[in-house]
Amino acid sequence: MEIYGRLFDLYPLESSMILWIKEEDGKLRRFEDSLRPRFYAQGERNDLLDLFRSLRKGQRGTGYQWTRKKELWSGHEVEVMEIEVVDSEHYAQLPRVLSPWEEKITFHNCDIPLPQTYLYEKKMFPTGRCIVEVEGNRIFKMHPDPSESVWMDDEDISDLRVMELRAEEDSIRKKSFLLECEGYQVEMETIDVGEIGKFLKHFDPDVILSDDGDASLLPLLFSEEKRCKVSIPWDREPYPLKRQLHSKGRSYFSYGRTYYQAPAHLFLGRWHIDRRNSFLYGESGIEGVIELARLAKIPVQRMARTSPGTAITSMQLDRAFQEGLLIPWRKGEPERFKTAWDLLVADKGGLVFQPRLGIFEDVAEIDFASMYPTMMAIHNISPETVLCGCCQNHRVPEAGYTICEKREGIIPKTLKPVLARRAWLKKMAKEAEGGRQEAEGRISREDENTREISDRNMRARDTGTTKREIYNRKQTALKWMLVTSFGYLGYRNARFGRIEAHEAVTAFGRESLLQAKEICEEEGFELLHAITDSLWIRKKGFGEEEILELCRKISEATGITMSLEGIYRWMAFLPSKGNPESPVANRYFGLFRNGKIKARGLSFRRSDTPPLIRKAQVRMIEVLTATKSIEDFQWKIPEILDLLLEYSLKLMAGQAKQEDLAIRKRMSQEPNAYKVDSLTALAAQQLEDVGIKIHPGEKIRYVIKDAESREKAERVRPFPLLGADDTYDVKKYLELLVKATEEILIHFGYDVKRLRRELKEFEV
Q: Do residues 412 and 426 lie in contact, with contact meaning Cβ atoms separated by under 8 Å?
């Protein structure tokens, strides 16, 4: 019997891979395919035979054969032992079992998640169409639909039934639970396990969306199931399985910050996506998650919880798998020895021209499109191609590293189609936006008296908007994957990482930015600021066509597409908060000619700024959108001061809502590990005192009650411990409001010291 449908979900179960196929009529069916996990071992034959005998004795290995595979770094074929493992459970234990043998034997392909390995072998991807030959529930033959590309363009998965599961918390003691699906909603003041089970059975959703489901909601419901001895059918798997409860997530340090990832609670045959535990979902929605799941060949709900870096790594693993390359278990290529001078020359990072402080008119911002990934693609930069040993071209600027000319690297092969795909998505989003505006124009021109809007025009407007959003979400997901591809190139534990390759990319980047600067100056433009892949330039009386021609010349010279981000009516570069004479690369804001504001480094862009302060600063900036030139600013200062007065009166009158004053901070360590009693530490300690566990990397919200109080407990109050009668520190919030106002006025000719004096006198 032949089945035609989409691969919805897959997971290993003992010696089988379980696959859920969604047929064209929307019916979901479960099938089993035999699974024989394999890995490769390289070393002396006697040592390899000893290894297999040990595995067979422990009932882990079922058989072996000798074969030849390509070694990653050299590209040469080597002899390896291919060992077959009993089942998925024993395969998961391999990293622990094989560790004692690492001194004698090199291991490959031994720790790749089995669903990914299965998809690599079958050349399939999640949500992809497939053709399956079955007998009963057993699969005999399976292959992807040859007519379908991995890129999902004009169609998406249809008939996905989505259920929402969330908790509304008013305080630590008051909580309500909400279930919603297909317009039906059930609200419970207390958990009713039976009611949740009935709701789930009735609607049988394909996707369950939750808020904090991984961190708190599902563990709470699991414990209620156990207490009430009633099971909720979270999984579609018909055979009873003992669910592994993960009570702890993981805290990790990345790029100067501590992050926390809650434990993953995945369902079988059904997707569970925790919106607050998914960076990808937050940035690109379900469309972006599915886009990367298909590309990376990672099951959808697993993809939702992993990083874009994991996605690009899986794509590289897939590419290596298809080319018969051995995938190293651990990174085996150490950084080569460098002198202090070598480090000084090669390890410089991105190039930055510090901005000129002040406010400027007629400024253009131009950007290299996906600069670093494009560098890696066009210059063949990959860990196995840099310092290859077979070429002597010394192509890398300054560092003089060699790049192989005889074979294309894994990373360039992986990145090229992604770069092309993102460029296409951005183009389609722009065309969809044009179509939407055209449809809206037709609608607005219709007879105002009759208001008879045609169905055709309405569909054009709705379709344009929907497609534009989908294209943008997908290209955003690809953007984050491309961004992390560069970081992973220099990550010390990356399988396909090498610090010299990372240095090569930045070296080419510095050279390209210098080329762009020189071309700008040759064309009569003045450089105001430049950072890594962006330049801010000005020239009196220039037009958009002149900038586009400049971008074309830079693109031709560097081989990387240079695009126009926008032309500003005015642009303000702000100083350091600590030193008003010192410029900062990432603090600026400006007004585009189309009336939109772009800002970086201001209070409203910071996640720890209270909503009330954020809203006040946004309104102040919006006042400036009506300005045409620098001379107009003086006339807008009174309006900005009126807003300052409005919000100051609101604070002093005690009219600000608690949620509008919430400060959101990330924990860098355990609450009791702080040596200084900061407000964040005190808030976290209060939560722990009532039994709410806080992990490093998690964010907490709190309101400042009295920052100068001698009683630690009275300085701050965290959510959800806030009571209706809790007050807030007016002086502290006024200080935050004044600082936000100063950021805007500092270059507009207003004396900020006078501002502070006047507000202090007003307060008294």
A: no
DSSP string, 455-516: HHHHHHHHHHHHHHHHHHHHHHHHHHHHHHHHHHHS-TT-TT--HHHHHHHHHHHHHHHHHH
Q: What is the DSSP letter of 260?
A: E
Q: How many CB atoms lie within 10 A of CB 27?
A: 10
Within this chain, do residues 550 and 653 fall inside the same structural domain, yes or no? no
CA distances in angstroms from 105 to 78, 81, 182, 326, 492, listed in the order given: 14, 11, 56, 14, 22
**What CA–CA distance (Å, rounded) separates 620 from 570?**
16
> What are the tens digits of pLDDT across the range 36-80?
899 999 999 999 999 999 999 999 999 999 999 998 888 889 999
Q: Which two tokens stand for residue 94?
A: 């391999």
- Asked if 712 and 682 touch (Cβ cutoff 8 Å), the reply is yes
Burial of 252-274, coded b for 16+ CB within 10 Å and e otherwise, reads: eeeeeebbbbbbbbbbbbbbbbb
- Whether residues 36 and 174 share a domain: the answer is no
CA 217 vs CA 174, 260, 275, 313, 754: distances in Å: 14, 17, 12, 31, 51
Question: Domain range holding 168?
Answer: 162-322
**Strand spans (E) along 182-284:** 184-188, 207-210, 250-254, 257-261, 271-274
Q: Please determine, for residue 704, whether its predicted confidence score (pLDDT) is greater than 80.
A: yes
Closest among 275, 323, 325 to 301, alpha carbons compared: 275
- Classify residue 743: in a domain, yes or no: yes
Indicate the length of the chain as a whole number.
Answer: 764
Please tell me whether residues 281 and 419 are part of one structural domain. Answer: no
Q: Give CA separation, 464 vs 291, 423, 435, 471, 476, in Å.
A: 20, 19, 6, 11, 18
Nearest to 381 by CA among 345, 417, 351, 410: 410
Residues 32 and 171 in one domain: no
Sheet of 162-169, strand order: 184-188, 175-181, 162-169, 207-210, 271-274
pLDDT tier at 589 (50, 70, 90 boundaries)? very high
Residue 68's CB is within 10 A of a number of other CB atoms, namely 10
Beta strands per DSSP E along 14-101: 16-23, 28-34, 38-42, 61-70, 77-85
CA distance 20 to 236: 10
Burial of 635 (0-12, 13-18, 19+ CB in 10 A): exposed
Sheet holding 716-718, edge to edge: 663-666, 699-704, 716-718
What separation in angstroms does the CA of 764 have from each of 494, 650, 732, 759? 59, 15, 15, 9
The rounded distance, in Å, linking the Cα atoms of 236 and 764 is 66
In terms of domains, do 216 and 314 share one? yes
Q: Which two tokens stand for residue 724?
A: 């209706």
Please list the residues that pair with 3 across neighbouring strands: 132
Q: How many angstroms separate the Cα of 120 from the Cα of each of 36, 107, 305?
A: 14, 19, 20
| Number of domains making up the chain | 4
Share of the chain above pLDDT 70, in %: 90
Q: What is the DSSP track for 547-585?
A: HHHHHHHHHHHHSS-EEEEEEEEEEEEEE-SS-TTSEEE
In tens, the pLDDT along 310-336 reads: 999 999 999 999 999 999 887 655 566
